[in-house]
Design a protein that fits this description.
Number of helices: 3
Strand content: under 5%
Distance between the termini: 17 Å
Low-confidence stretches: none
Largest sheet: none
Radius of gyration: 19 Å
Helix content: 55-70%
Shape: elongated
Keywords: Membrane, Transmembrane, Transmembrane helix
Protein name: Glycine zipper family protein
Mean pLDDT: 77
Length: about 90
């Protein structure tokens, strides 16, 4: 398996948190504040914070390492370039 630097932040969760927060914020904003814009802004902020928190969480388990090993084995057998492209 090739050595890959560990990323401190995984931005995969950020858009999901923003979308979920925005959607839930609209509903809560209409119910609690009776203001669609205020609810959407609060929900967007909470969703962004949720996405950032999920992005910074650790705990990359062995399943990720196993998947990386399978990817490396496939590339070795089939001659596919790695994530950095052809050398």
């Amino acid at each position: 398996m090739t050595d890959r630097p560990r990323r401190r932040f995984d931005a995969t969760w950020l858009p999901f948190g923003m979308m979920l927060g925005f959607t839930v914020g609209i509903g809560v904003g209409l119910t609690a504040f009776d203001n669609l814009l205020l609810g959407a802004l609060v929900g967007f902020a909470v969703g962004t914070a949720l996405g950032i928190a999920l992005g910074f969480r650790g705990g990359r388990g062995s399943s990720v390492r196993d998947e990386d090993a399978e990817d490396d084995e496939y590339r070795r057998r089939h001659g596919d370039p790695g994530p950095g492209g052809p050398r």
